[in-house]
Amino acid sequence: MIVLVIDDEDDIRLLAEMGLAASGLNVVVAAGGAEGLALARTHQPDLIVLDVMMPEMDGYATLEALRREPATAKIPVLMLTAKNLAASDETLRDQGVVDLVPKPFVPREFVARVLAALSALEASAKTTRPGRST
């Protein structure tokens, strides 16, 4: 499975990349929204980890751009945030955000949440395939 991590903080990208790679995932990293969009198009990740607060193109703008493009519109997103997003949680879920992870995070917990999200997505894909009974 491929996970794309989009975050402007070097330390966060490194922690995420090391933890996810150690769990057997293929990890692609981007330092900003525009770079992340390009990598999402070329790598077609199974999940995108997206920081909310980034300069130039924040997580909301990146999410909107992902949803506008047919090639990336359905890729699930896990958002990293230092903000309290409870008020906008339902709106984000409607846009394909599968989890909100607060920053700073404990690396082991972060990896567990990414793996749980991927597992849930995989289980959902199995039950919604044509020809399978649910």
Provide tags for this entry:
Rossmann fold, 134 residues, alpha/beta
Characterization of the model:
The structure is a single chain. This protein is an alpha/beta fold and 134 residues long. It has one domain (2-128): 3-Layer(aba) Sandwich (Rossmann fold). Helices cover 46% and strands 19% of the residues. The protein has helices spanning 10-22, 33-43, 59-68, 89-94, 107-128, and strands at residues 2-6, 26-30, 47-51, 77-81, 97-102. Helix 1 links the parallel strand 1 (2-6) and strand 2 (26-30). The radius of gyration is 14 Å and the shape is globular. The two termini are 24 Å apart.
Write a concise synopsis of the structure shown:
It is built from five helices and five strands; from the N terminus they run βαβαβαβαβα. By secondary structure, it is an alpha/beta fold.
Structural class: alpha/beta
Q: How far is the first residue's CA from the last residue's CA?
A: 24 Å
Query: Which CATH C-level class is it?
Result: Alpha Beta
Number of strands: 5
Rounded to an integer in angstroms, the radius of gyration calculated over CA atoms is 14 Å
Mean pLDDT: 89
Topology:
Blueprint: E1 2-6, H1 10-22, E2 26-30, H2 33-43, E3 47-51, H3 59-68, E4 77-81, H4 89-94, E5 97-102, H5 107-128
Parallel strand pairs: 1-2, 1-3, 3-4, 4-5
